[in-house]
Amino acid sequence: MSQRCSSDDSDVKGGPLLSDEKVGRPQAAEVKQDCKSGLGGLRDVRSAFADASLRSRESPEAPQNLLRGFSLLFDQNALFTSHSKAYTDTTYRSPIFRSVSIGSAAMAAGYTDPKLSVDGILKGSTRGSKVKDVHRKPPKPPGGYIEASTTFYTATKPSTAMQIIRAILGDMGVDFTENSTKFKFKCETYPRGYRLPFNIRIFTHGSEYAVEMQRRSGDCICFARIYKNFLRRCAKRGLCAKLEPPEPKGSLDFEGDFVLGEMQGSELESSLKPLVEMAASEYVDVKSSAVCSLAQLTTGKAVKQWMRKNVDSNSKLLKQLLVAKNQEIHRPAVTIVANLSTEKDFSAAFNTRDCLSILIKLLDSENAQVVRESSRALKNIAVAQRKKTSISTTQIVGLLKSSDPRVQKNAKALQEALK
Fold first, then answer.
1. Which of 28, 71, 111, 258 has the fewest CB atoms lying closer than 10 Å?
2. Where is the composition biased (Basic and acidic residues) (predicted)?
3. pLDDT tens-digit map of 309-346
4. CATH superfamily of 265-417
């Protein structure tokens, strides 16, 4: 550092040390003087610059708010140690300028810099802007692992693929949240009354992109059907290659859902009565499994007719299930109520102040499926009972503004039924 301090200013190849004469900065001579007095370390050099006042020469009392630009006279490739003379035998190349932007007040005072915009940000910089980089590539799969059986590859741009997947999930009625930074969709659906969460992610895979669907929990067979449905829709939109011809009937990959519509009499009762008894069980897992099964089975006419034989006891059981704290219980229970409310006997049993208040309270649930099925149950009760129901139109105003089109549809039908 002492050798550098004794050198002449003409050795600097980068031109003059100071480029803005309006801002008072520590001159090279001052630094030399400090160096001669024994300040040889990098910390001492910084202290010398900090002690110099950042004030205008025309108005010494007012501090400047524009920037501090100065040169650090050391080799860019030099190594730093804790010793005082860290830089030795340096060969000066070009000065290193540090510019610190501190607001636009100095801009109004007449201090300008061609590299700065009005707000003090470097021109061409994207810092602070909300513009997304549409050319950003998806990340690589963690550890290089990809689900082999539920992944396809595409050459479509990631931004376009995200738009296509978003539209397909909406058409399939899947609840999802999107993370564009990770190129990820966090999805939930409820086949047969059971919750089935899964993720869809786009990864960079060589010159192509991998679209992976990963099951987080739930029925694996239902997940396989959902993936095939998703893959078929992607093929129609050109996101992947067309599927092979469908397998012959009789395999596990069937499209229909199992409904006890063909069973009658004692055979139907022997199948449904154990499920109703399980729904009244004190064990949460047994109760949840039975309620989820009934949520699917009550879509059939034969099951509804069998449930009507014991309207009072079944409706009382369902009201108890609606107030269960466990979401895995009250979510399928409200689906059962919505399915059975199309029958006049059940709609009359559910058209009570306590039951309606429970359904209205469930409209504020954080789960989209609970809100959707609660609105459907209220709509079915109102349509079946017409003016006999005690539902108020003020209680469904929020449903009309819902972002879920299915909730909006139920709310409009409910509003028409209440007129």
1. 258
2. 1-12
3. 899 999 999 999 999 999 999 999 999 999 999 998 99
4. Leucine-rich Repeat Variant (1.25.10.10)
